[in-house]
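Convert to structure. Protein one:
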Amino acid sequence: MNKNDFAQNPPMGWNSYDYYNTEVNEAQVRANAEYMAAHLKEFGWEYVVIDISWYAVDAGSQSDKYQYLPFGELLMDEYSRLIPDPVRFPSAAGGNGFSVLADYIHSLGLKFGIHIMRGIPRAAAHEHRGLLGTDVTADQLADPANICPWNPYMYGLRVNMPEAQMYYDSIMQLYTSWGVDFIKCDDICREDAPTAHREIELLHNAIMKCGRPIVLSLSPGPAKISEAAFYAANANMWRITDDFWDSWPLLKDMFRRCELWQGKNQPGCYPDCDMLPVGVIGGCFDKKVERQSALTVEEQRTMMSLWCIAGSPLMAGAELTKLDDFTLALLTNRDVLDMQRCGQYAMQLARTDEYAIWVSRDPAKDRGYIALFNLADEERAVHCWVGAIADRGYKPYDGGRIRELWTGAEAAFSSGGLACLVPAHGARVFVY
């Protein structure tokens, strides 16, 4: 298998975290998958991803105090591999794991993903549980000094032991038997732990051995730009930011991050801007605080425009069954989504505190894109010179009219450039 064949275009899907945090259950996953199949699949949305704590008993029961229960019970098999909680995922009973749920999602023409944490469950080490294919036990493989600073579930591995690769191989064998298509591995991307770099390699090796094209996503960020080639060799997507939420300052800062990572896209390898906090979402740590995204209409168009022109994966965080007409239209603008697969050709031409200009091209369809972003707090004109596009090797303007992808309005270059009034925090994206 070739890792880069697993996702020829940046993955698009839904992730449970932004609305459900640690508490999603099987019925809710099925409902979101059904909505995706009915309303989003034809536009390229295909991954249904269950985020953190699917193996945790009573997850979310003390969400007023803790995001993750200290010393909470985690369910696992005799080989120290986490398994779904059958209270929340009834089809997992009887040793089925996620196989029944994955089969259902596949029957809808979609793909199935799960979140995992780097390392091995602490409880497995404390209980001296076994590992598949070896007499070494979890306590011997786990490094008790190698822990995640924000989550109490796991120990890192003693990565120089051959059993470290065996353990990752064993969990990948389990996920393969369930029909998993996508893995989001956490506490690994920004390499807080000294073993994270090696554990990325171990995960990659395990996927290459498992016989199934499982997309590997690394979290949280920011990823290290100095390790860009390493991420590309071992993963399909990697986070360039910590958790992204519906805040204008966070969104404005993404222009800096996307500029840093421009040119690092290639088929099968994508810098990841994180989930899209659109529609009805939950709080950062408490899904009971159900709310509409705090981003304005224009800010949401800016976010979608930047994610797409930069070629980032797209993972909607909304409760899909509660999508309003605006959010559905935002996520199904075919012309804007078309830019996403051309991220390797994207470039930021200019950026100040008040505006940014991005360009891209689609060689397959012989067309070019110009995105004008207003980063200021009031409406202003943003201007792009024709010469600046041609000088960077992009498709030259041929003198015809051009179309804006959000409004459908037509415009034309004049006096050697394209100028457009853009609302505060808004975007106008043109194709020619």
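Protein two, convert as well:
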Amino acid sequence: MELQKIIEQIRPADQAAYRACAARFDRTAKPIGSLGRLEELLKRIAAIDGDPGIDLDRRCVLVFCADNGVLAQGVAQSTSDVTAAIGRSLAAGTASVSVMARAAGAQVYPVDMGMAQIVPGLLDRRLGPGTADFSQMPAMDYKTAQKGILTGIELVCKKKEEGYRIIATGEAGIGNTTTSSAMASVFLRCPPEQVTGRGSGLTDEGLLRKLRAIRRGIEVNRPDPADPVDVLSKVGGFDLAGMTGAFIGGAFCRVPVVIDGFISAMAALCAVRLCPAVKDYILPSHMTAEPAGRLLMAELGLSPVIHGEMRLGEGTGAVALLPLLDLAAAVYHDAATFDDIQVEAYRPWEK
């Protein structure tokens, strides 16, 4: 199906289910709203499902892996060999997100969207052996960006068909804080300095190279902020294309999709720019330590629950949210109600 036709079928989440979940929480024997943002996330999940039942038993993580040609400009302290090494760890189940996901009861699905090296054991959705160097030319052509988005949609819908009730996003790819910063600079209409950090640990000189590459990429390619696919194709990455599709797929298939950190937040914003209704189907997890994190969350109008200054990527922050959702769901399903303890219910405070 064409991307535009998919977008046209997306509708806002079910607010009746949201209100039913809120009413059920309010009957629980505790002060109204006292679980704060955790309650809000469960209400959002109910609205996405169209059902206040809240079932999070099956969960998975899609980790989108890709390499970026802009690495040639010295924008990272590592090479594409590290992307391949992370891919091998993901395939072996020894990566950080793999270990955390096992503890959280989630299955990890690493996806090769376009790595420089082929790593056995990853889902093959390759768009090429990495993007072009966007400081010299567009990272990819427009049709390839669309194909990447459609790939992410297809993966999420497949996981929904397999019975997964919540999907976390992650990524692996050296240089992808550079692509994400370039996209953020265009979408937020702000200078690269405001949205660019040191990634995995750049020196001052390395940070200057990164900023030069981003400025050059925007000057050379002139991405159009009114056309999200144009921005993605010119200064983005294959992983960002796949994740953009994952967020759109969540809205299309009605399954909650969790933002991880800076890179997946950038993809989430790209998805929302393509289709504003997608926002209803996105859950925030943590506030990344990357400079653009707060700006992106403010632009999306989302409030993360976790403020741990995490910046590992791979989906680790998104996975960290899952146990917190389980705790809130346990209260929602199993805690005593005011009727159970024969106490008058709290009444909402009216201004």
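DSSP finds 15 helices and six strands in the chain. The two ends are 49 Å apart (CA to CA).
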